[in-house]
Amino acid sequence: MTRKTNKMGTMPVRQLVLSMSIPAIISMVIQALYNIVDSIYVSRIGEDALTAVSLAFPLQLLIIALVMGTGSGITSLISRRLGEHDRESATRAANHGFVINMAYSLIILLFGLFFAKQAVSVFTDDANLIDLTTSYISVVFVFSFGRFISQAGMSTLQATGDMIHPMKAMLIGAVTNIVLDPILIFGLLGMPELGIRGAAIATVTGQILSFVYIGIVMRNGKHEVEIDLKHFKPNARILKDIYVVALPAIIMQSLGSVMISGLNLILITFSSTAVAVLGVYYKLQSIVIMPVFGLVQGYMPIMGFNYGAKNKDRMVESLKVTVRFAFLIMVLGTAVMNIFPSQLLSLFDASSEMVEIGMGALKRMSLCLPMAAVGITFSITFQALGKGHISLIASFARQMIFILPFAWLLARLGGLDYVWYAFIIAEVLSMMIIGPWLMVDLGKIFKGWEHENNAKNEKFNEEDAVTY
């Protein structure tokens, strides 16, 4: 038990980052693959069905925002408390995380039951698209408890340095989804043909099985923190400490939903196919960007632990190692999208119009990915330090001040082909904000520690002189 905690402060950093990240990267890649497989199968139903999934994506991002944002707050707080050797506070934070996610699942269930159709109607007045999208998103919302509660467990385990069980949980969900997708969508093996609703049922079934697995692990295993909801007592200070990181992260993730909704409204003025292309890009991008998210999932507790332990050298080295790996992953992804755009689009049974629009879109938008790798790492660093508001400021600038206004302007000036350049412009400008900010902030932290050490040394020297 002690060894698991101490490795974040003792194992060689490169080895530590890889050992902590590889399980998360594997699970994220599988997660991305099943998102792509889901869309590939849906595209076989028809382009309207693929467009419906694209229209549903911003609404799904609301769940992702709550899940990932709160997960960041939980992981950051637990890892910092363990770095300070305060196991009791870490345990209490973990219990709060579970209760928070249970509350989320209830709220989203009610939204899915009563407001799904109204939410979808904001994006289109096409009756067929409204029905298809509502059919898909209502299932995802009503049965979201599997996603929420399993993530509470995964965030807790990751904060303690256990990346294997979260990886297994995500693999269970992803494999279940991949297997059930064709069976439920097309009515194979004697099952009824459910179409787009079948894709949603496959998704939530996988999430529920992940939740069951995490529940078994948390109940039967021995961990750095223990879950005991029977004796749970809400604590305002713990909630505040979680949401100092979680709330900015939730808002930051939610901005993605607003941004994509805005882009869909811009693109649908050209054609519904342009909306489908954006959806396909985000599916393909996920196979590149999800490994980076897996990488930073492993990196965050390392940075948080060593920040709590005030270990400057390990903080700096882990940041450098993570940025290099993230950048390399994104460069490879950019190369693939630029070399094989038509082949990638053909996976989604793309029409000639979709291929024509999509080839230019994939090539242009993917150019922003290497710089995004650095931005993601810097943003997660602020979250690990308990300063999620800075990540929020940078994300708000990127999505609301840069991407959407530039997309609107470029659409007016140059048409559809120019819209995609907004992504590149936004990454360059947002990096000019978050990069210098992180360097200055880390400098202040390290300088403060240096002053503390100097003050302690002076005190020790004075005590030694008096004793002598």
UniProtKB/TrEMBL annotation:
Domain of life: Bacteria
InterPro entries on file: MATE_fam, MdtK-like, Membrane_Transporter-Flippase
Signal peptide start and end residues: none
Cellular compartment(s): Cell membrane
Keyword Nucleotidyltransferase: no
Transport among keywords: yes
GO cellular component, one term: plasma membrane
GO molecular function: antiporter activity; xenobiotic transmembrane transporter activity
Recorded topology in the membrane: Multi-pass membrane protein
TM segment ranges: 16-37, 57-78, 98-116, 136-157, 169-189, 195-217, 262-281, 288-309, 321-340, 390-411, 418-439
Keywords recorded for this protein, A-Z: Cell membrane, Membrane, Transmembrane, Transmembrane helix, Transport
NCBIfam families from the UniProt entry: matE
Protein name: Putative efflux protein, MATE family
